[in-house]
Amino acid sequence: MPAHPHRCFAVTAPGLEAITAAELAVLEIAPVGTEPGGVEFAASSDQLYRANLELRTASRIIVRVAEFPARAFYELERKAGRVPWGEVVPAGAPVRFRVTSKKSRLYHADAIAQRLQAIVGGGPEGNPSIADDSGDEGAPTAQLFIVRVLRDLVTISADSSGALLHRRGYRPAGGKAPLRETFAAAMLLRAGYDGTAPLVDPFCGSGTIPIEAALLARRMAPGLGRAFAFQRWPGFDAAAWQALTARASERILPAAPAVIAGSDRDAGAIAMAEANAERAGVAGAIGFRTGAVSTVHPPAGPGLLVTNPPYGVRVGRSGDLRDLYARLGALIRERWKGWTVAMLAAGPMPEREMGLPFQVGWESNTGGIPIRCLIRP
């Protein structure tokens, strides 16, 4: 990899940019700016490695390889031939392209990908262009290049992450409506969780929120134990990476400083949560139990109640949720005085039925469903 700083972009869900930027700042990596869906930053190779290893709310880190104007295919081919592809992919190694084109003379994404494929070589047979992340698992060793053409400006970036960063490796299958790990981490960070206060999730499902809390509380980097695309790059510094992961491993606390608890009325979900926690290496840090929300009592606090309750889109029916939210609001007033509450919501029902004042911590969408992180300090 080149010695000069990389121009990088941490891709994140829309609405989480400020949280990801704050994470970078904690890692002593200065954000350059934000735009919908990500945070730009400059990084040395060590910082690029660390961003992949440590960021909890980003889905991937891409590195800018080239940027140039092109209004015709001959111009694209000529300029793409000068791109330093060899800095991130050896000659003949498999490559893939994700191409989008808007308001440009070069409007055919597949044709753009085919031209680039011919220049770089090493790709699979057939169409080298992929439209979304669904192809990530199909070619795990192929280097992904993300190509954006906007108003005749071609921007080529190399994915440094490989499998999406939210795929921590502990959850091979979720519950009825699994919460993405990056959203769980964003809830925790926005609520101010640092592992020193008790945390309870009374609708834990397959355990994502308690597990992410335990990783954070024990100072476990979310990327430990997995492989990254940059490890296949020609200039990869194996010694630097080994030193970085060794320091991250030494930083892990032997136990969580405070109680972390998760419960769910679905015994199957709890069994899955326990298996996921075991795979994540945090089983001993979390107390799981089967039970309805009305049976949950807070440990000595104050602390944080962070949860993703059913919101009537994928799980349950809206009519069945009114009583649940009303009861949850009453329980918070009765039992959880002085506790910070953070919960995901779709639509206005939670605030209306719970009768509690909330602040909107962030807004995003998951699977096309608009969601909000509600915070009650």
The backbone outline, from C-alpha atoms, is: globular
Structural class: alpha/beta
The count of β-strands is 14
Largest sheet: 7 strands, mixed
CA distance, first residue to last residue: 45 Å
Number of helices: 10
Q: How does this structure look, described?
A:
Residues 130-135 have low confidence and may be disordered. It is globular, with a radius of gyration of 22 Å. The chain has helices spanning 17-26, 45-54, 73-80, 109-120, 181-190, 208-217, 238-250, 267-280, 318-335, 349-354, and strands at residues 6-12, 31-35, 38-43, 58-69, 95-102, 143-150, 153-159, 199-201, 260-264, 287-290, 304-307, 340-345, 359-366, 369-376. Helix content is 29%, strand content 24%. The chain is built from ten helices and 14 strands. The chain has two domains: 6-159, VC0802-like; 181-218 and 253-376, Rossmann fold (3-Layer(aba) Sandwich), CATH 3.40.50. By secondary structure, it is an alpha/beta fold. The strands form two sheets. The protein has a seven-stranded mixed β-sheet. A seven-stranded mixed β-sheet has the order 10-9-8-11-12-14-13, covered by helices on one side. Helix 2 (45-54) packs across helix 7 (238-250) and helix 3 (73-80) packs parallel to helix 4.
Question: Secondary-structure blueprint of this entry?
Answer:
Layout: E1 6-12, H1 17-26, E2 31-35, E3 38-43, H2 45-54, E4 58-69, H3 73-80, E5 95-102, H4 109-120, E6 143-150, E7 153-159, H5 181-190, E8 199-201, H6 208-217, H7 238-250, E9 260-264, H8 267-280, E10 287-290, E11 304-307, H9 318-335, E12 340-345, H10 349-354, E13 359-366, E14 369-376
Parallel strand pairs: 5-6, 8-9, 8-11, 9-10, 11-12
Antiparallel strand pairs: 1-3, 1-4, 2-3, 4-7, 6-7, 12-14, 13-14
Helix pairs in contact: 2-7, 3-4, 5-6
